[in-house]
C-alpha cells in the first residue's frame, strides 16, 4: 500500500505517453519548438500570482478564527497541500488534512480549528465553480455535439458537487447533524475495533464541537464572504487566462469560452479519485475537447502538455521542495500517503 500512490502516478504518466505516441511525437515536438517563450513566461507568472491569491484567501479564514500566521508561512503550507492533492488519488482532497495538520502544529492551535479554515477556504472555491460549471454545461449542450450520456454525466456531476457541498455545510454548523456524524463515526470504530474505541468517543465529539464552533465564527465574519468570494472568482478567471496565454504562445485561434468549458470539464474529471491529480484522464479529456473545438490534435496536445507542466508538475515540485521547511513529521505523513 505504501507504493500504491507511486504506481498510480506512473500509470498516469504512461497514459500521457501513449496519447503523445498516438498523436505523433514529431508533430507535437515541432509545435513545442515554435512556441512563443514570452507568452509561456506570462503563463508561469500568472501561476505564481494564483499561488499568492490562494494564500491571501486562506489568510482571510485563518484570521477569522484568530489564527495569526504570516502569509510567508501559509504559502509553503498551501504548496505542500497542493502537491499532496496532485500526487495522491484522493479526489483532490488529500492535501487538506495535511494543510490543517501543518497549520495546527505551526500555529500551536487545535487541528479542528485549523481544519475549519481549510474547509472554509475550499468552500469559497465551490461558489464560482458551481456558477461556471452550470454555464459550461449549458454552453456545451448548445455548441458541442455531445452524446446524451455525456450531457447527463456532466449534469449529475455538478448536482453531486452541489449536494455534497450543502451537506458538508449543514454538518459543519448544525448541532444535531454534527452529533449524528459523531455517532456514525463512533459506530464505525465499534465495527472495526471491538475494544478500545471508548477512549475515542469523547475526543471525536469534542473535536466536532470545536470544529463547528470555528465554522460558525467564520460564517459570521462578513469579510470572509466580501473578500473571499470575489477572490475565488478572480482565481478561476486567472486559471483560464493562463491556458489562453499558452494557446497564444502556439498561435492558436481559440476563444476564452471554449477554454473555460474545457477547463471546467477537465476539473470535474480530475475529481474522480482514480489517478493522482487526474493524471492522464485530465490530459486526455483536454486533448479530445480541444480537438472537437477545431484545434489540431498536435497543438491540443502541445498546449495540454505545457499547461500541465505549469499547473501540475511545477506546483508538485514546489510543494515537495517546501516539505523540509516543516520538518520530518510532515515528510513522514506524505510518504505514508504515497
From TrEMBL:
Keywords per UniProt: Cell membrane, Membrane, Transmembrane, Transmembrane helix
Membrane-crossing segments per the record: 7-26, 38-56, 126-144, 150-171, 224-247, 253-275, 287-306, 312-331
Annotated membrane topology: Multi-pass membrane protein
Main localization (coarse): membrane
InterPro entries assigned to the protein according to its UniProt record, in alphabetical order: L-PG_synthase/AglD
Pfam families: LPG_synthase_TM (PF03706)
Keyword Membrane appears in the UniProt entry: yes
Locations listed in the record: Cell membrane
Similarity-based family: Belongs to the UPF0104 family.
Alphabetical list of NCBIfam families matching this protein: flippase-like domain
Name listed for the protein in its UniProt record: Membrane protein
The species this protein was found in: Methanothermobacter tenebrarum
Amino acid at each position: 500500500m505504501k507504493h500504491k500512490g507511486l504506481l498510480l502516478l506512473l500509470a498516469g504518466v504512461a497514459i500521457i505517453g501513449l496519447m503523445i505516441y498516438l498523436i505523433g511525437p514529431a508533430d507535437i515536438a515541432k509545435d513545442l519548438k515554435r512556441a512563443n517563450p514570452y507568452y509561456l513566461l506570462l503563463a508561469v507568472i500568472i501561476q505564481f500570482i494564483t499561488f499568492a491569491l490562494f494564500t491571501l484567501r486562506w489568510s482571510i479564514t485563518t484570521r477569522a478564527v484568530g489564527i495569526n500566521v504570516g502569509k510567508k508561512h501559509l504559502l509553503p503550507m498551501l504548496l505542500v497541500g497542493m502537491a499532496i492533492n496532485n500526487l495522491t488519488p484522493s479526489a483532490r482532497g488529500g492535501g487538506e488534512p495535511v494543510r490543517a495538520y501543518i497549520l495546527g502544529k505551526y500555529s500551536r492551535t487545535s487541528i479542528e480549528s485549523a481544519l475549519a479554515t481549510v474547509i472554509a477556504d475550499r468552500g469559497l472555491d465551490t461558489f464560482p465553480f458551481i456558477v461556471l460549471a452550470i454555464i459550461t454545461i449549458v454552453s456545451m449542450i448548445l455548441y458541442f455535439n455531445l452524446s446524451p450520456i455525456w450531457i447527463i454525466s456532466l449534469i449529475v456531476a455538478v448536482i453531486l458537487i452541489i449536494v455534497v457541498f450543502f451537506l458538508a455545510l449543514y454538518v459543519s454548523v448544525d448541532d444535531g447533524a454534527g452529533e449524528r456524524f459523531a455517532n456514525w463515526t463512533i459506530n464505525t470504530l465499534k465495527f472495526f475495533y471491538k475494544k478500545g474505541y471508548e477512549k475515542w468517543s469523547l475526543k471525536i465529539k469534542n473535536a466536532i464541537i470545536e470544529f463547528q464552533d470555528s465554522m460558525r465564527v467564520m460564517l459570521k465574519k462578513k469579510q470572509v464572504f466580501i473578500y473571499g468570494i470575489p477572490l475565488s472568482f478572480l482565481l478561476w478567471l486567472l486559471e483560464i487566462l493562463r491556458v489562453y496565454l499558452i494557446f497564444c504562445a502556439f498561435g492558436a485561434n481559440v476563444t476564452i469560452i471554449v477554454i473555460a468549458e474545457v477547463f471546467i470539464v477537465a476539473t470535474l474529471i480530475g475529481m474522480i479519485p482514480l489517478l493522482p491529480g487526474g493524471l492522464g484522464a485530465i490530459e486526455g479529456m483536454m486533448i479530445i475537447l480541444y480537438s472537437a473545438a477545431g484545434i489540431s490534435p498536435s497543438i491540443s496536445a502541445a498546449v495540454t502538455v505545457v499547461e500541465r507542466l505549469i499547473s501540475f508538475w511545477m506546483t508538485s515540485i514546489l510543494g515537495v521542495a517546501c516539505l523540509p521547511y516543516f520538518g520530518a513529521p510532515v515528510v513522514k505523513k506524505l510518504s505514508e500517503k504515497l
